């Protein structure tokens, strides 16, 4: 009930404008019940975000060959389009714990897992810097694209994301490609 209520409300307005009181009233539960499951509204909406856009999509085991990277992005972008009002309102937030922070955290985890599977030393400071540069920068680009109404086609965005992969990481994502 909480997830349904939060989804409906955040689909209509920015998450900063939503109060826990508004969510619990819509779900017809008490604040006490809310806080039994979630520490704040961001934890709730981030769980919804994960279930809609990450859970069955962002799986390191799915990344086996070069084209899998593109397929994962296209699947996620399709889900964004299906829930555009919700995701747009999530990405307007810059509060601590917001979905922007959550997306960066998940993406960094995902890339580390992929690179570990390929035998990359993810403790190498240059590799870590490359991962963070790719994932923080990519998340902000994605956020701006979503907030702007996703005017660029999904295939084109995948091509643009490929361009922001730091040189040090290219051989691990695109072994056949030389730049």
UniProtKB/TrEMBL annotation:
Signal peptide: none annotated. Residues 19-38 bind DNA. The keyword DNA-binding applies. SUPFAM superfamilies: Homeodomain-like (SSF46689). InterPro entries: Homeodomain-like_sf (IPR009057), HTH-type_Tx_Regulator (IPR050624), HTH_TetR (IPR001647). Keywords: DNA-binding. Residues 1-56 form the HTH tetR-type domain. This is TetR/AcrR family transcriptional regulator.
């Amino acid at each position: 009930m909480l997830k349904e209520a939060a989804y409906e409300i955040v689909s209509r307005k920015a998450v900063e404008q939503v109060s826990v009181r508004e969510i619990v009233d819509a779900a017809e539960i008490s604040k006490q019940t809310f806080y039994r499951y979630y520490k704040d509204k961001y934890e709730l909406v981030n769980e919804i975000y994960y279930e809609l856009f990450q859970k069955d999509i962002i799986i390191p085991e799915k990344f086996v060959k070069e084209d899998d990277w593109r397929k994962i992005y296209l699947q996620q972008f399709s889900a964004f389009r299906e829930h555009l009002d919700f995701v747009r309102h999530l990405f307007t937030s810059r509060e601590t714990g917001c979905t922007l922070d959550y997306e960066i955290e998940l993406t960094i985890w995902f890339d580390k897992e992929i690179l570990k599977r390929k035998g990359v030393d993810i403790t190498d400071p240059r590799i870590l810097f490359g991962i963070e540069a790719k994932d923080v920068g990519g998340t902000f680009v994605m956020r701006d694209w979503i907030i702007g109404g996703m005017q660029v086609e999904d295939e084109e965005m995948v091509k643009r994301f490929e361009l922001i992969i730091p040189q040090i990481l290219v051989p691990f994502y695109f072994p056949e490609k030389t730049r």
